[in-house]
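Structural prep section.
Before we set up the soaks we want a predicted structure of the protein with adenosine-5'-triphosphate in place, mainly to decide which crystallisation condition to try first. Input record follows.
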Amino acid sequence: MKLAENIPGLAAPKIRIANLTKQFAARGGTFTAIDNISLDIAPGTFFVIVGPSGCGKTTLLRILAELEKPSSGTVEVRADRPGRPSNSMVFQGDSIFPWMTVWDNAAYGLKLRGLPEAEVKETVGHYLDKTGLTKFARHYPHQLSGGMKQRVSIARAFANDPEILLMDEPFSALDEQNKTLLQEEVLRIWEADKKTVVFITHSVDEAVTLGDKIMVMSAHPGNVKAIIDVPFARPRNVLELRSQPAYGEMVYNIWGHLREEVQRAKAQEEART
Ligand SMILES: Nc1ncnc2c1ncn2[C@@H]1O[C@H](COP(=O)(O)OP(=O)(O)OP(=O)(O)O)[C@@H](O)[C@H]1O
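Run finished without errors. Recording the tokens verbatim:
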């Protein structure tokens, strides 16, 4: 995927989605999961997507990851440095190789690209340190808790140094304490290298805590209901941020956009059953 010609004088977006529609074959016809979305995401944005269940969030992310093809329209990611992977993805639950150590999991993408051993060592060492995994470098996934496995996944994704980072509900299976710790860690790592991130969550709190921009999607067929700027300064401290009245107002505001769509999705589901 290459981004179209830059328009002189305008900052080029990192991601450009134009008239994107995705349909799946369904009994007796087609099912429209994404309906004509157009959207630019600026470089270095932490872009969060929230929306009711089934509105097409994962489908959109899978198209960005080149795991699905659009039915029509285009998705372009601007490549800034040749040789880097276009994207890395972090999923909910286990997405690391069970037969590899923590170190080998984190080093996987770099080794695949044939980077010099010293560079692999330095990069992997850096991200294992940032995710608190240095002591566990020789452990295997079965020896780790769920939170630690997600840390490995995050270390691997950042170490891989992709053009964009795609995260699909990476913390949803974790308990509240682990979730907060990992949100803080991701913020710390992200604030240091400001990679463009597209992050899906069901949690409005998580969206406001992490995001620069929050896109609320409409219920099926998936479209853009609203895009909201999150004005909080960085670096952010998760607990401090959540104690501010402005934070509560923001969460309330996002819920205002989301509530109707969640109700619509629920009605659609009930009509189907
Ligand atoms: N491969 C597929 N074939 C047919 N339908 C699909 C396929 N993948 C997704 N869908 C449908 O497209 C719609 C959007 O799915 P998607 O997983 O993108 O939603 P979502 O917003 O991520 O949902 P959730 O929040 O529940 O994870 C759903 O109705 C789903 O059943």
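Observations: The pocket of adenosine-5'-triphosphate is lined by residues 24, 31, 33, 51, 53-59 (CB under 6 Å).
Flagged for discussion at group meeting.
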